[in-house]
């Protein structure tokens, strides 16, 4: 059976699953049987016999986590904010126009047989970070490209941008500080298995392809007609990437000729920006279409001369820093913002701009009295872009939190690591609690007012509030107070997943809390959760499981106080399994070995429905070994060694 009868996505999903289970197996945390794994590999062999995952020894790529030298420098782009400069560039040669996708640049390398070799980030342009293990899970990146016999000895490097589709981000947004940090944050994860679900929704868009001969020399565009039978034209290169297996990318690329005037160009750009997209862009790229001209122009140390990125300039203004304010998030990270002498930008009066973190302040030499330039592009938060004139007095970073606990430097940030008695960190936790429960009409501003009035110290205090309490606070009238109290009282029945999310647990974003709720069904089970139990689930590594369970313990008193006022509803998605709690296999660990009359997958589904777990190896924790005959296999011997009950297939099946 050939790959033609199966979609590329089906093949890559299967390959990703095999790699995932290999990693679990070699780290001693296998969750499927050997037979199930073998069946997956056999299936992949049938539909894609030369897939590189089949020839991997172990699960790690040879250079995983190391620096990789780029065969040709992976440069940035020259950019301009000037319509006139862009018009002048376009008048030189016919061009193509394409989106400058806001993601992360990658280089994907393939060997002489078209097999995936490795993937790396741009890095410093000369060396990039190896992200092969991550990229193996991105489904629209082929793990084997289609090779023509005439290309003997050629190796390929495909460059492009990996991005997060906007339509997919909503379900993962709680994991990231911002949309822009989502892709680099995911590809920067050392524990890849924790990011597999995100990696599988990322997309890769090609913007270039490099070819090297058997002596590792770059093949120039002049040779393309002889080797690939295509013209040295950018569009022909992009068609070549489609022939070898990459996704069509014509939606974000089009031919472009210089219009009659800069004014006409401005209108063309507006139309291009207005296009519908499932990704963010941070500009538009223009590139000379003739590849020979593009190559002959060469590069600077920074960028190729035959390409130019156009960016819309945000409006800027100069002002003065009047004060630097600090704020502490629920994680304990200290963020800073500058109070500014008010200026007008894009029709809005601006009095504040972010100063990000301690490192940003240090490197920029920002302090009270400094003259700075700020920018506001579109509707984004105003940002300080450069120092115009320093003040005479440098800003001294705080050494202690407002709670009195010493601050600790972690990379670019200052952190308050006090877990139990930082009221200022608790303030952010209270805001997060209310927003997670979607309490209608109770905004962040209202929460802060109630907090500042000293009426709430922890989440349970919200349910003690009365109308009379709120009437003491400036700005609260009778009706608004009644509405807030009614909204809070109406939030007393909380689904388990939402309740866990509202606690602000470490490693406990909305998606992870949904997984835990489904697994445990009841809050009681969650509170008795062990790290080892979490490690049996997909997407949990040792560190994240430890953090989650430890965070639960830290919040135990807070949870018990909340339970005096709220009812936590069992997770409906797990109730079906819970209803089987009287089944003899409920909660049991069962291993199956030897030949069977029915497929193992069928038995696995049956066990899942009654709350049992099919394990791939026998240990002291195993309850039953299903085996039709006395065997010399290691599983049978281990079952005897650990006094595990051995039953036949018929005995096993009779319980269903």
Automatic annotation (TrEMBL):
Signal peptide (from-to): none
Binding site for Zn(2+): 401, 403, 416, 422
Record-listed NAD(+) binding positions: 34-38, 76-77, 122, 161, 311
Domain BRCT: 580-656
Catalytic reactions of this protein: NAD(+) + (deoxyribonucleotide)n-3'-hydroxyl + 5'-phospho-(deoxyribonucleotide)m = (deoxyribonucleotide)n+m + AMP + beta-nicotinamide D-nucleotide
SUPFAM superfamilies, per database record: BRCT domain, DNA ligase/mRNA capping enzyme, catalytic domain, Nucleic acid-binding proteins, RuvA domain 2-like
GO biological process: DNA repair; DNA replication
InterPro entries: BRCT_dom (IPR001357), BRCT_dom_sf (IPR036420), DNA_ligase (IPR001679), DNAligase_adenylation (IPR013839), DNAligase_N (IPR013840), NA-bd_OB-fold (IPR012340), NAD_DNA_ligase_OB (IPR004150), RuvA_2-like (IPR010994)
Gene3D superfamilies (UniProt xref): 5' to 3' exonuclease, C-terminal subdomain, BRCT domain, DNA ligase/mRNA capping enzyme, Helix hairpin bin, Nucleic acid-binding proteins
EC number: 6.5.1.2
Keyword set includes Zinc: yes
GO MF term set: DNA ligase (NAD+) activity; metal ion binding
SMART domains recorded: LIGANc (SM00532)
Keyword annotations from UniProtKB, A to Z: DNA damage, DNA repair, DNA replication, Ligase, Magnesium, Manganese, Metal-binding, NAD, Zinc
Residues annotated as the enzyme's active site: 100
Cofactor annotation: Mg(2+); Mn(2+)
PROSITE patterns noted in UniProt: BRCT
Function: DNA ligase that catalyzes the formation of phosphodiester linkages between 5'-phosphoryl and 3'-hydroxyl groups in double-stranded DNA using NAD as a coenzyme and as the energy source for the reaction. It is essential for DNA replication and repair of damaged DNA.
NCBIfam families hit by this protein: PRK07956.1
Family: Belongs to the NAD-dependent DNA ligase family. LigA subfamily.
Protein name, entry field: DNA ligase
Organism this protein belongs to: Silvanigrella aquatica
């Amino acid at each position: 059976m050939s790959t033609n009868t199966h979609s590329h996505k089906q093949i890559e999903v299967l390959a990703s699953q095999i790699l995932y289970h290999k990693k679990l197996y070699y780290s001693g945390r296998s969750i499927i049987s050997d037979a199930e794994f073998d069946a997956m590999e056999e299936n992949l062999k049938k539909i894609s016999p030369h897939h590189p995952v089949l020839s991997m020894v172990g699960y790690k790529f040879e250079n995983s986590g190391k620096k990789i030298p780029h065969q040709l420098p992976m440069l940035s782009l020259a950019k301009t904010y000037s319509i006139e400069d862009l018009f002048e560039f376009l008048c030189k040669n016919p061009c193509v126009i394409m989106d400058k996708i806001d993601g992360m640049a990658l280089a994907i390398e393939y060997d002489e047989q078209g097999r995936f070799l490795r993937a790396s980030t741009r890095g410093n342009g000369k060396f990039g970070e190896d992200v092969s293990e991550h990229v193996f899970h991105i489904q629209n990146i082929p793990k084997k490209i289609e090779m023509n016999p005439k290309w003997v000895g050629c190796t390929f490097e495909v460059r492009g941008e990996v991005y997060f589709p906007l339509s997919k981000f909503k379900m993962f947004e709680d994991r990231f500080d911002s949309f822009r940090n989502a892709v680099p944050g995911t590809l920067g994860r050392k524990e890849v298995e924790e990011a597999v679900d995100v990696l599988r929704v990322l997309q890769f868009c090609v913007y270039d392809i490099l070819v090297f001969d058997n002596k590792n020399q770059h093949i120039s565009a002049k040779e393309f007609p002889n080797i690939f039978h295509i013209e040295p034209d950018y569009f022909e290169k992009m068609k070549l990437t489609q022939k070898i297996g990459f996704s069509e990318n014509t939606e974000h690329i089009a031919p472009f000729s210089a219009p009659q005037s800069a004014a006409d160009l401005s209108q063309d750009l507006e139309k291009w920006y207005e296009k519908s997209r499932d990704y963010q862009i941070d500009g538009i790229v223009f590139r000379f279409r003739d590849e020979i001209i593009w190559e002959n122009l060469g590069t600077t140390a920074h960028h190729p001369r035959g390409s130019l990125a156009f960016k819309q300039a945000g409006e800027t203004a100069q002002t003065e820093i009047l004060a630097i304010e600090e704020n502490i998030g629920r994680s304990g990270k200290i963020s800073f913002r500058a109070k500014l002498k008010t200026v007008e930008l894009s029709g809005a009066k601006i009095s504040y701009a972010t100063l990000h973190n301690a490192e940003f302040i240090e490197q920029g030499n920002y302090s009270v009295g400094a003259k700075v330039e700020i920018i506001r592009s579109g509707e984004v938060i105003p940002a300080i872009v450069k120092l115009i004139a320093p003040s005479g007095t440098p800003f001294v970073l705080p050494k202690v939190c407002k709670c009195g606990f010493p601050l600790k430097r972690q990379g670019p940030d200052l952190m308050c690591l006090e877990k139990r008695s930082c009221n200022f960190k608790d303030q952010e936790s209270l805001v997060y609690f209310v927003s997670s429960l979607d309490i209608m009409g109770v905004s962040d501003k209202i929460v802060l007012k109630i907090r500042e009035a000293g009426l709430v110290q922890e989440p349970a205090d919200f349910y003690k509030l009365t109308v009379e309490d709120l009437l003491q606070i400036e700005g609260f009238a009778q009706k608004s107070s009644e509405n807030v109290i009614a909204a809070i009282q109406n939030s007393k029945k909380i689904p388990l997943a939402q309740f866990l999310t509202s606690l602000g647990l470490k490693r406990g974003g909305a998606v992870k809390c949904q997984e835990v709720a489904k697994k445990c069904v009841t809050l009681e089970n969650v509170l008795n959760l062990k790290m080892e139990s979490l490690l049996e689930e997909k997407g949990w590594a040792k560190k994240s499981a430890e953090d989650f369970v430890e965070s639960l313990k830290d919040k135990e008193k807070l949870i018990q106080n909340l339970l005096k006022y709220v009812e936590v509803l069992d997770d409906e998605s797990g109730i079906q399994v819970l209803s089987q709690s009287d089944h003899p296999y409920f909660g049991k660990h069962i291993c199956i070995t030897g030949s069977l009359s029915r497929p193992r997958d069928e038995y696995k589904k049956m066990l899942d429905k009654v709350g049992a777990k099919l394990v791939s190896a026998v240990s002291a924790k195993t309850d039953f070994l299903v085996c039709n005959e006395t065997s010399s296999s290691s599983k049978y011997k281990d079952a005897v060694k650990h006094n595990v009950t051995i039953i036949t297939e018929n005995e096993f099946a009779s319980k269903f």
